[in-house]
Amino acid sequence: MAPVWYNQPMPTVYPIRMYGDPILRRKAREISDLEAPQQVAGFAPVTLRQLAEDMFETMFEAGGVGLAAPQVGLPIRMFVAADYNDDVPEGHDRSLKARLRQQYVVINPTLEVLDPRLEARYDDGCLSLPGIYEPGVQRERAVRLRYTDLEGQQRITEADDYLARVFQHEFEHLEGRLYLDRLPPEVTERHRARLAEFQREARAYLKRLEQQDQRQKRRR
């Protein structure tokens, strides 16, 4: 699938919802109309195509490999993901955009396990839990992803190794799950202070959105 860049307005970098935001624990709903505008709270409505570009830009800015719509406050079954080239010669541009090998816009996905053997070679991290990386998260080695693309076409992508891990991670966001759920409770306890900080940030951001919404209503 070719890189997704469009003749649209300059992309927007959205705030990423932090651990403790209720939207991260809700199961996302299917997208029934690819033409319907989507609106991230606090921003103007955009097409689904523009939303995909904005989500990529947000992901690149945060240094991620995937980003699910609930992480920007949209409870819809969509995520974006990237496969990067790690073999970059000295002196070349090492930015994420320059290293991009392939990118995916995934709408209404289903996930099928192809190789049920579990592996935990890679650390897991999450843009909604910045700075926390944990080894030992076991995930299936290979998966088949079925989804709709931005053109409304049905796609099938098979992935193994690290990309399979990315797909599983982002799919779980759409189910309202986080990677910490796959680890023993003592891991969450170890990060208790940092997680409490994320929860405070999440509450403060939701409060700002509520106040902004109230101001807009008073102007009408």
Automatic annotation (TrEMBL):
Binds 1 Fe(2+) ion. It is an enzyme of class 3 (hydrolase). InterPro entries: Peptide_deformylase, Peptide_deformylase_sf. One of its GO terms (molecular function) is metal ion binding. The active site is at 170. This is Peptide deformylase. The keyword Amino-acid biosynthesis does not apply. One of its GO terms (biological process) is translation. The keyword Hydrolase applies. Removes the formyl group from the N-terminal Met of newly synthesized proteins. Requires at least a dipeptide for an efficient rate of reaction. N-terminal L-methionine is a prerequisite for activity but the enzyme has broad specificity at other positions. Fe cation binds at residues 126, 169, 173. It comes from the Bacteria. PANTHER family: PEPTIDE DEFORMYLASE. Its EC number is 3.5.1.88. Keywords: Coiled coil, Hydrolase, Iron, Metal-binding, Protein biosynthesis. It catalyses: N-terminal N-formyl-L-methionyl-[peptide] + H2O = N-terminal L-methionyl-[peptide] + formate. Residues 188-215 form a coiled coil. The lineage of its organism: Bacteria, Thermotogati, Deinococcota, Deinococci, Deinococcales. Belongs to the polypeptide deformylase family. Its cofactor is Fe(2+).
